Amino acid sequence: MLVSLCVSFFVAYVIYVFAIPFIEASFFNLAYPKKKILPPQLEMKWANRVLLRTCEFLFVGWFFYFGASIGSFLNVVAWRVPEGRTIVFGGSKCPFCDTRLSFIDNTPIFGWIYLQGKCRTCRLPIAPRYLLIEIAVGVVFLWLALWQLVRGGANLPHWSLAKRTGLVNIVLDPEWLLIGIYAVHATMFGVLIMLATANVGKKPFPLFYLALIGFGLASAKIVQPSLDLVAWYQPFSKFGFSNRSPFANPALSMLLGGLVGGALGWISSFAFARHFGAIVGRHWTLQCFLVGTVLGWQSEVTILMISLVVYGMVRSAYGIYRPPLSHWSLANQALVLNACFIIVALVHHSFWIQIAHLLGLA
Prior knowledge:
It is globular and about 65 Å long. It is mainly α and 362 residues long. The protein contains 14 helices and no strands. It has a domain at 150-358. The longest helix is centred in the N-terminal third of the chain and has 35 residues, at 46-80. The protein has helices at 2-31, 40-43, 46-80, 110-114, 129-149, 167-171, 176-198, 207-218, 220-223, 248-273, 278-295, 297-321, 330-350, 352-358.
């Protein structure tokens, strides 16, 4: 299976670097037979084009695997921290025979595939959630890199450097502030996925650690006020709420976002998450708190309302064609609710500037 994965990786490289430019040039010649000037990338010398597209391919692979590695670490955090175990000392072990995993076996994605989802020693199955979480976090990190970094922050409201786009600007002339924003937002989505994973455990994720993570991410706004993309007083500045000092605005955004997110999450948990169990309800509240703290109360209200509507539609649609969703286990229902919230948050983040304009925030 690992050999097949490597072969697939090589085939994807050949298709992207060599086949796609040839196909694009052929379609361009068919569409514009009288034009002799090709698009800039197709007009490049062959060696330069191969080098550029190879860098693009490696860029995609690096960000995906970087995210998968973070997902592997978050898997450890989701299972060890609620149990009161350390995440600093002690390598990963098989949950059945307690055998420490080797470097190859513990490699994100490839290790699980190489072992075919079984422990090398006792041959008992390793839960596929480890693989799925690594893939999910890898996809999120890659998507944010392509949609936010490569496009120069074009999805961010009140961002003035959107003209610096493309892979070359990221590698050769990086905009470190934009990279910092990417790191904060990608980490937030990783923690949201981690909390969804922790729902399966028998103990809740400690409130202290999550509050520390949330305020740690949001406090970057105080250090760098330009990270506060939507001010706390928008869109109610006409009612007397006004701009404060450069450091007071981010602090108020962080505190107000956390209060609104935590309150709405706590209230909505009684209607949508509490019957799944106290652990799910608590993690749901923490997820809402985290989004409000990092993205602002405006984003939290928008994401929460849309995600609850989407969740209701999923329940209704599923009940039409199959037995009602209530026949699912509580763990699966909680997973659907969390998936709706995270997907809606990711879509909102991708089109944040358009939504901000629609709501009068930009």
